[in-house]
Specification:
The complex is a heterodimer of chains A (315) and B (273). Chain A is mostly helical and 315 residues long. Chain A has 15 helices and 2 strands. In chain A, strand 1 and strand 2 form a beta hairpin. The N and C termini of chain B lie close together (9 Å). Classes of the chains: A mainly alpha (315), B mainly alpha (273). The interface between A and B is large, with 98 and 92 residues.
């Protein structure tokens, strides 16, 4: 402190001296900056996660219904040998893949128009138009689809006005994707998932497209490529990492969601609903914990694949 | 930069239709929520709505359960945002100022609560609350919310720090300011709008969060939990419609504000390139 006092102006208060002293001790400053957030996330968050993981190695005693705190793989054995659980996993993964694909197809034209054709003002407006649904209430947006998809709701009304009621009925009579009404079918669940996660796909694609240099596109044209060729052979390959980055969100969010399929869709459970039911109604925390390992493992595999496709450079 | 406004050929009709259709798909459902809040039909979701009325706004405002839930949501969001502002800013300052062992791991740790599906965060906190035998309270809600709000503040403030020259701080110290003065007159004014934007987004995020909330609330009811119970077992459809419109309004204001607060700096940084 004596050497620092010589370099700095006269200091009166304790705080002033402390703050100047900290500036000259970057290690101490770093420690003080990092300690609170690390304590919070490390103790509260990571602690909780590890506690959950640890509990998947416990098991529930069949007679008392109490959790036995001894290391066992019985919970995993029960979990993996139950074919109903594999059905749930398969159903969820297929839904997540379908939702991801649909999001990519809908998001790409929006992002492409935004980056390459929209003027400054329109681009800002579109950006805000994507941000608003992204940040605004998830529940309210799900609720709006309950209004739209209801039996007496908007879609049915429009279908009848256009004399297309028969087409809607034909769609609903299809196996698997059909159901008594749109709001109690997988089609409904699918549409709502796509709607809710779409902004998460648009933004990374926009970011990837913005990184395509104009000069590259001009060079492609100068070298004789037609616009269509430039799009397919230059722009699209460079945009793929953005699509993959977006798909990380859409895939992960669909895997873990338990609210949407509970509100709109059939009664057969998705992964998130199974976890929720195990910990809530059944009170089987070890089994619920084993269930939560599934999306974590699936996302691990997915992230490893995405990394190979260069998705992290586009985030 | 100016030439960016018009570049390349004009968009084809197919692309325009697809882009417009996509944007409509994102926004029409929100308009429909607003429309139904004025519906005079209370029993079903009939379309077109039979008549317009504003009476449900008055009914919803009188409901004590709605007011209690709203009050709890606002208090939780405000407290969680305050905690996230402090922790997120500290973390972003640390990551910006220095390179140290495990720096990437810290970024990952901060992002993790929103990168992992919410149900995992929720159930992990729930089991930790059960193990430590902490009773459910206002503070268990705040702990859950602050944990996933930190990343929002962190991202906003770190982005600003990266555009701020470290030389500014050295210059301030060289000119004789002490650490506190540098913080007060140099660092804070530089990151003020980023803090405000991050805080607003964190508030919007916390205000309508439902997944982690269901696991940390116990018997308490925040506004999203109230809405969720109405979605699962509809009892008061008209009141739900009004609450939905109210939630849209409360979350839109901070989002738009955050957009404008950070947009200026984007323009500034863009023109310097």
């Amino acid at each position: 402190m004596t050497s620092s006092a010589a370099m700095l102006p006269r200091e009166s208060g304790f705080l002033q001296r402390l703050s100047s002293g900290l500036y000259l001790r970057p290690r101490l400053l770093l420690f003080l900056l990092l300690a609170p957030p690390l304590l919070w996330l490390g103790v509260i968050y990571l602690g909780s996660l590890f506690a959950l993981l640890a509990q998947s190695f416990f098991a529930v005693d069949e007679f008392s219904g109490m959790v036995v705190k001894e290391f066992t793989l019985a919970t995993y054995r029960d979990f993996l040998t139950n074919p109903a659980n594999w059905d749930i996993i398969l159903r969820t993964v297929v839904m997540a893949a379908a939702v991801t694909l649909a999001c990519a197809v809908i998001a790409f034209p929006i992002a492409y128009y935004m980056v390459r054709f929209a003027g400054m003002r329109l681009k800002a407006a579109m950006y805000l138009g994507v941000m608003l649904p992204l940040w605004s209430s998830y529940l309210v947006r799900v609720y709006s689809w309950k209004l739209i998809l209801a039996k007496e709701g908007i879609i049915s009304w429009f279908a009848n006005q256009l004399h297309l009621g028969w087409a809607l009925d034909a769609w609903l009579s299809l196996p698997v994707i059909g159901g008594p009404s749109l709001s109690t079918s997988y089609t409904g669940t699918f549409v709502v998932f796509v709607y809710i996660w779409l902004p998460f796909m648009i933004l990374p694609v926009v970011a990837a497209l913005e990184r395509v240099p104009n000069s590259v596109i001009e060079a492609s044209g100068d070298l004789g490529a037609r616009p269509r060729q430039t799009f397919r052979q230059v722009i699209l390959p460079l945009a793929i990492p953005g699509v993959v980055a977006g798909s990380i969100f859409t895939f992960s969010l669909t895997l873990g969601d338990y609210i949407i399929p509970g509100i709109i869709g059939q009664s057969t459970p998705f992964l998130g609903q199974a976890v929720f039911a195990q910990q809530g109604i059944a009170g089987n925390i070890p089994l619920a914990a084993a269930f939560t390992v599934v999306p974590v493992v699936l996302m691990g595999i997915y992230l490893a694949l995405a990394k190979r496709l260069g998705a992290f450079d586009a985030l | 930069m100016r030439s960016d406004a018009r570049r390349g050929p004009r968009a084809g009709i197919a692309l325009k239709t697809a882009a417009l259709g996509g944007m409509l798909f994102l926004h029409i459902p929100l308009l429909i929520i607003v429309l139904y809040a004025f519906s005079s039909e209370a029993r079903s979701f009939t379309f077109p709505i039979p008549g317009f009325t504003t009476k449900w706004f008055a009914v919803a405002f009188e409901r004590q359960d709605v007011r209690d839930a709203l009050g709890l949501s606002l208090r939780v969001a405000a407290t969680a945002t305050a905690v996230a502002l402090v922790l997120g800013t500290l973390a972003s300052a640390a990551v910006w100022k220095s390179r140290f062992f495990g720096r990437d791991a810290i970024s990952l740790l901060i992002v993790l609560p929103i990168a992992l599906p919410g149900i995992i965060t929720g159930i992990a906190l729930r089991s930790a609350i059960a193990i430590t035998e902490i009773p459910f309270s206002f503070w268990t809600l705040v702990i859950g919310h602050a944990t996933f709000c930190i990343v929002v503040v962190y991202n906003n403030v770190l982005a600003r720090f990266r555009r701020t020259s470290g030389a500014l701080i050295e210059a301030s110290m060289d000119l004789g300011a002490n650490g506190l003065q540098t913080l007060r007159y140099v660092i804070l004014p530089n990151i003020a709008t980023a803090l405000l934007a991050g805080g607003m987004l964190a508030f919007a995020l916390s205000f309508d969060e439902v997944i982690v909330t269901t696991f940390t609330a116990g018997q308490q009811s925040t506004l999203p939990i109230w809405m969720l119970s109405q979605l699962l077992r509809p009892r008061d459809r008209p009141v739900t419609n009004v609450v939905a419109v109210f939630v849209i309004a409360v979350t839109f204001i901070p989002i738009i504000a955050a957009f404008y607060l950070t947009r200026d700096t984007h323009d500034v940084s863009g023109s310097q390139k």
